[in-house]
Amino acid sequence: MLQISNTVSLADWEIEMTAIRAQGAGGQNVNNTSYTLEPHGNPNA
Fold first, then answer.
1. What are the CB-based long-range contacts (under 8 Å, 24+) for 16-21?
2. What's the pTM value of the predicted model, to 2 decimals?
3. For residue 33, which of 15, 19, 17 has the smallest C-alpha distance?
């Protein structure tokens, strides 16, 4: 369970995390791959 505040929380089944490639300038790290987690949720499900 993810506790947002004293009155708001999300159950584990309401949250989905997706790994995606992070965007940004290449520069000297052009051959490196960076990932980030993108949260998705449907609290009305």
1. 16/40, 16/41
2. 0.42
3. 19
pLDDT of residue 35: 75
DSSP 28: G
Per-residue tokens: 4: 């947002």
Asked if 34 and 24 touch (Cβ cutoff 8 Å), the reply is yes
pLDDT truncated to tens, each residue of the chain (45 aa)? Answer: 888 899 988 888 888 888 887 766 666 656 566 777 777 776 665
- Nearest in space to 21 (alpha carbons), one of 36, 1, 5, 11: 36
The SS3 of residue 25 is coil
Query: Tokens 């449907």 map to which residue?
Result: 42
